[in-house]
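Blinded run. Sample ID left blank on purpose so nobody reads anything into the name before looking at the predicted structure. Input follows.
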Amino acid sequence: MKAVRFSRFGGPEVLEIVDFPDPHPGPGQVRIAVRAAGVNPSDWKKREGLMDGELPQTMGYEAAGVVDELGEDVADAVVGDRVFGFCAEGAAQAELAVLSSYAPVPRSLDFPGAAALPAAIETATRALDQLGVGSGSLLLINGASGSVGSAAVQLAVVRGARVIGTASPANHDYLRSLGAEPVAYGEGLAERVHALAPDGVGVALDVAGSGVLPELIELAGGAEHVITVADFGGAREHGVRFSSGDAGRAVHALSEIGELIDSGRFSLRVAQTFPLAEVAEAHRAGEQGRARGKLVLLVGGQDRPG
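Blinded prediction complete.
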């Protein structure tokens, strides 16, 4: 099979498509013929050597496709099923991938739409769980218009929370459509939030990593009420919890999202798709930071939603 790999750290030009032996699923896993694979900021951090010093490395943690091989003790999937999920080996940007956590592709989604889901909904759900967001919560999300941020907005609204979200003015109407009250980021953020919530907020989630943790701490009444998924250094400096999957992933989000999508209560934008062979261009587009939605690689044929 063909897969994305890099053998040296650097810019997008180090990415290459190479031949690999076909992978096979272990117990509780399934193998899919990949139809689409998500692209994430962690991909270029990994490519630049900021996450793992080993070489060579494969790419991709989320994909959607058609099950073509079952591991032992798999009772919730059969060959031919359309599924999406996580590739724990980090090799989802390939013609074949082994998924360790997976769920059926929602009926109303195509493969690119399903491949865009896992990282965003898991990260958002994990953070909301850790913050204890539920009915009556007042949540501030810094960076609410990106993939993780918009997922967190919608999932918090479903839980019955009131959500205030920071974004550029161009994205304020989008946030309103998701159920959030938008405010502009930048200098004066605290005053703008206080105009909407005079007593501050209950909890705050930093998705953007834009250096605003002190303001979030003030608004939420203490560092213990703030979580960041994007500012590791700031978290250590200010005593804020940095949420990562190392302490356990919220994989229950995969099986829960289908009903929300099919009922129209959740959506995630796919900004642009690229053939697998153009993975370097996908990285360049992502690093420019202008994509309004998720970037997705296309692999193989694209079946219509079931």
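Unblinding after everyone has recorded impressions. The chain has two domains: 2-116+268-298, 123-247.
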